[in-house]
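Have a close read of the entry that follows and walk me through the local backbone shapes. See right below:
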Amino acid sequence: MTARTTHLDDGVRAALRAVSAAAGQGLGDPPLAELVQIRASQLNHCAFCLDMHLGIARERGVSERQLGLLSTWEEAGDVFGGRERAALALTEAVTVLAGGPSRACGAGGGSVPDEVYGKAAEFFDEAELAHLIALITAVNSWNRLMVSRRIPPGSTRW
């Protein structure tokens, strides 16, 4: 596969990198941050981001078992703890907004279910939750930038 374009404005790249870094740092759990970014990249079919975050996850000590079972985390028993499960459920809800677009923010369709948000709030304090949502949002932005431009895994020009 050949990239459609490798051009990305330096300001956009820097801004997204800053958001990603701040969100990950604020979450304070590097292995979990990688699991979240991998799961969103799986859902968005972003080979570039998936390839990159798999490598980073291994460097940060995420087990091969968790990486292998991540796409089926709900069925993986005790491979993922409660905090990880809550983060992954929130990742899926934010990445795939169920019900389609809504007419007003938070008005029905296209929203994150209260039960998913509530479960995450059991495991994350308010600041951590804000950083987790920012991280999910940032990786979704990266996924869309890479997929729409067809940036292949391992590419050094993007």
Q: What stands out?
A: The chain has a mean pLDDT of 93.
